[in-house]
Amino acid sequence: MIKSEKITMTTFLKKLRQEHDISQEFLAKKIGVSRPTYVQIENGARKMLVEEAQKLAQFFGLSLENFLSGKNTPILKVELEKSKKQEKQEQETRVSVPQEKVEKFKEVLLYILERIGARPNIGEGVVCKLMYFIDFDFYEKFEEQLIGAKYIKNHFGPTPVAFTEIVAQMEQDGDLTRVTKKYFQHDQKKYLPRRSADLSIFSAQEKELIDWEIERFKDFNATKMRDYSHKDVPWIGANDLQPINYEAVFSRTDEFSVRQYDDEL
Question: Angle, nearest 10°, between helix axes 102-116 and 163-173?
Fold first, then answer.
């Protein structure tokens, strides 16, 4: 089944490339890989990373979601005369987060950065997976969505599809700043908050769970967070670069479950 989806995605990529009369070497340079590596990606012999998929989607003028789904539907350009409200609504639709939840996405991110963002181990990778556990643990515990973001199965762990676009919007609005620092031998993307999170947007149980998640993951680095998330049933059950199903939390092992099911009998 996974193999079939890989063929579908790679066939779509090859079709796009041929329709635009673009060489494999050209696209390889666009995503920062060698031509042999690109050939492997296009043939399905090598997994496509989320960062590579984002670059390809942007190059072909598609949303990441449409690119991964094999839909050749271009992103509509926002006309200059449209109001800021209309522009914001269209952007929120593209980033695959329910419109009423985009503000919670931003405030959760800012709150995480306020609490632990300055720690040397907390980079983009840890933040993305921390948001995944906040979302999926809240859903398991209360059967309600806190943010309700869409996450896909990335080689490095669960990744919010909306993350890149929302962060870019927040940078533009002056909510945060992106920096690159060295963490041991690796370049690490970090985000510095430029305003305090609006905690009034959270209910008491939402904030309690967010605080609990931050506390339990504050000492994890990207590698430890990746390895841990790879053992969670929702991630295991998803196909590569495809959405992770929230309903899978109800099949979690005891190690990951945050709900006392015995009490409900």
Answer: 80
Residue pLDDT, tens place only, 198-211 = 999 999 999 999 99
For residue 221, count CB atoms less than 10 angstroms from its CB and return exposed for 0-12, middle for 13-18, buried for 19 or more: middle
Report helix, strand or coil for 176: strand
pTM of the model: 0.71
Locate the domains of the chain by residue range.
2-69, 84-259
SS (H, E, C) 196-224: CCCHHHCCHHHHHHHHHHHHHHCCCCHHH
Task: Fold for 2-69, please state it.
Answer: 434 Repressor (Amino-terminal Domain) (1.10.260)
Alpha helices in the chain (DSSP H): 2-19, 24-31, 35-43, 50-59, 64-69, 84-94, 102-116, 124-142, 163-173, 204-217, 222-229, 233-237
Say how far apart CA 87 and CA 99 lie, in whole Å: 12
Cα separation, 222 vs 213, in Å, equals 15
Q: Cβ atoms within 10 A of the Cβ of 137, count?
A: 22
